[in-house]
């Protein structure tokens, strides 16, 4: 039996900066020592939208309001196809607390966030988010 791809969902989480610009939230995962966008696998019976909101909350401590769909990234992880669908999401509240999965977050202007992302496939998502702004 052939299994389909691992389905996951995530967000380009953003907020208004004190300076008046926008900031994007990146998460640092110590297991991989990488900077990425908040994302994770769908649980049984969960929609992609529900998973995206849950993963933001679990990884960043923030609640969010989903915005526009940004696209789906396809890659192979641990020998299996994976597809991650991303939305823009405005942070609506919360506080980050380091945990087993994510030990730090960084709120950065979009260009700095794009530069810090470890995986090249994540960078176009930040550009897509910025393009939706104007």
Give short descriptive properties of this protein:
single chain; 134 residues; alpha+beta; Nucleoside Triphosphate Pyrophosphohydrolase; 7-stranded mixed beta sheet; 7 strands; globular
What would you note in describing this structure?
The protein has 134 residues and is of the alpha+beta class. The chain has helices spanning 48-60, 110-116, 123-133; strands spanning 6-16, 22-29, 34-36, 39-41, 62-77, 80-94, 104-108. Strand 1 (6-16) and strand 2 (22-29) form a beta hairpin. Helix 2 packs antiparallel against helix 3. It is globular. The termini are far apart.
List SSEs in N-to-C order: EEEEHEEEHH
Parts with pLDDT < 50 across at least 5 consecutive residues: none
Number of strands: 7
For this structure, the CATH topology is Nucleoside Triphosphate Pyrophosphohydrolase
Our estimate of the beta-strand percent is over 45%
Biggest sheet, open or closed, and with what strands and sense?
A: 7 strands, mixed
CATH class: Alpha Beta
- Provide the gyration radius in Å: 14 Å
Distance linking N and C termini:
46 Å
* Main structural class: alpha+beta
The proportion of residues forming helix, as a percent range, comes to: 10-25%
Coarse morphology: globular
CATH superfamily: Nucleoside Triphosphate Pyrophosphohydrolase
Helix count from the secondary structure assignment:
3
CATH architecture annotation: Alpha-Beta Complex
Total tally of structural domains: 1
Short description:
The chain is an alpha+beta fold and about 130 residues long. It contains three helices and seven strands, in the order ββββαβββαα.
């Amino acid at each position: 039996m052939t299994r389909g791809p691992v389905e996951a969902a995530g967000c380009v989480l953003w907020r208004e900066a004190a300076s008046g610009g926008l900031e994007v939230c990146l998460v640092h995962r110590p297991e991989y020592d990488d900077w990425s966008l908040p994302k994770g696998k769908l649980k049984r019976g969960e929609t992609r939208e529900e998973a995206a909101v849950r993963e933001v909350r679990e990884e960043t401590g923030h609640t969010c309001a989903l915005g526009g769909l940004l696209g789906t990234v396809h890659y192979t992880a641990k020998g299996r196809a994976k597809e991650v669908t991303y939305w823009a999401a405005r942070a609506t509240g919360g506080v980050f607390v380091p945990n087993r999965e994510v030990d730090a977050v960084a709120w950065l202007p979009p260009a700095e966030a794009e530069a810090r992302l470890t995986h090249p496939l994540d960078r176009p998502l930040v550009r897509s988010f910025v393009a939706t702004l104007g």
